[in-house]
Amino acid sequence: MAIRIIVDSSADMEEDYAAEHDITIIPMTIAFGSEQFAEGVDLSREEFFERLVETDELPRTSQIPPMVFQDLFQEAVDAGNEVVCITLSSHISGTYQSACIAAAPFKESVFVVDSENATIGERILAERAWALRDEGLSAADIAYCLNQEKKDIRLVASLDTLEYLRRGGRISGAAALVGGMLSIKPVVGVVDGDVVVLGKARGSKQSKNMVFQKIDEAGGIDFTRPIWVAYSGLSDATARKYIADSLAQAKAAEEAAADESAVPDDLPLTQVGAVIGTHVGPGGVAFAFFARES
């Protein structure tokens, strides 16, 4: 019996990467005015950000309806397979509820996991799923492990502005107003499934330092489990600078502590997709990782 892993497109996983690891991506829908697109299918990430910076109207995103999940679940079960489905945080989207509704008739075969995270935070949980599958765990055991390990996931991001989160209704207007003053660069994270403002820094350098501070406060990065860096917008230059500086700090700390945990020479980098990009705007850099100490 094979185990099929399914994620929604807000995990920001590339199609070729998903195909290589036998993961199915269900696209979410994004609309610019009357035009609707399936994320990653009808609209590339680059095309999305080109449109985003040119429009005055915030795009709209839609959760995946139960029927879409149900069709995929039925197909898998009919083929004699089990399913582990990982979704965007239920605090952010109704997609998790849709998946649960669709999974109800398949209680012994389909297991839905609320990532309680977003973008690459959801992605690294999906990567743990295929690693556990490769270890030979059952679908039920994989879902159990994911529900335990997701508590160790931290997502910390530096944004250029809070305006997109405000316009999308993710934070209050007052919080966004403060963030817009005096070149304030907000640092946000996902805590208990919700997007929260972790701090505000004046200027890009202090913002980067605050991101690293929040990573340290989380207990540091467990490099034995998946880690990803993501950028929003059309340029990855800032994100690559973050990677270089973060690895330099990690290697220095490792040497000072005589720590035998291996710090890699580079970190994987991806571009944020349309669903998450709608709410954070361009100019953001995010780290998603499993904390060494929870």
Automatic annotation (TrEMBL):
Coiled coil: none
Alphabetical keyword list: Lipid-binding
The keyword Isomerase belongs to this UniProt entry's keyword annotation: no
Gene3D superfamilies, per the entry: 3.30.1180.10, 3.40.50.10170
GO MF annotation terms: lipid binding
Protein name, as recorded: DegV family protein
Organism the protein comes from: Adlercreutzia hattorii
